Amino acid sequence: MNYYELVFTLIDSQGFYQDLLINDLSQISFDTFEETDFGFKAYIVTDKFDQDLLDNYLLKYAGECTFSYEINLIPAQNWNQVWESNFEPITINDKVLVRATFHPTKNNFDYEIVIDPKMAFGTGHHQTTAMMMAYMLETNFTQKMVLDMGCGTGILAILASKMGAKQVIAIDNDPVCYQSVIENAALNGVKIESLCGSKEEIPTRKFDIILANINRNILLDQIATYAQVLNNDGILFLSGFHQEPDVEMLNKAAKALNLKYLHHKNLNEWVAAKFVKIN
What we know:
Helix content is about 30%, strand content about 35%. It contains 8 helices and 14 strands. It is globular, with a radius of gyration of 18 Å.
């Protein structure tokens, strides 16, 4: 099938706007995204492209985010071959290997995660996913109840399960991600409850660890719900935002909810932070 490729260039815009744009585009049938040095590329089947709908979605960014985009027609091609040429295995702290189904296995890692990379969300290559996994390697997941919000392809949820979590629930508002988690969990031989939606899908039960790798605005909207379902002394890991002004804003919101900021990691201007719920 033929695709349109929209090449977005962000100009003098804060990083979280790119995540918001990608999230919005995923709601209107764009199914694949690729980051570039100056923005990102978004792909959509030509039959599903609606210029008027796109214009309406982009109107909300007027006056807030400066960007441009160009549209290219991409003729039908072997998309699996394209993914194979662009996707490389990654390692985290010499302990985790994330590889695609078409890569050979390696035995010198504590944890191996195999995914079918149908889309760019959550392949592990983004700095925020890498930092979240680094945090996870410092944490005891044995017999823990875990919630993964904005789970993408399910990498964090899979790692939590392989690290001994009692139960893992993974939530994403993209139906492609929802299905991808189911398929990738099966590939890795782990049990994950995959749900499609947003904070309204969070079960009314208590969690020991919550992983939320989304963006600042969505995290601010959802953090009160996280606090509500997190056990006392439970750990909250957040990522998908930048140092300024995001860390201060999230810390302020967390403090009001008895979520104590502990520290954060930085990687190429992106940040991941750790909080604990206090009595």
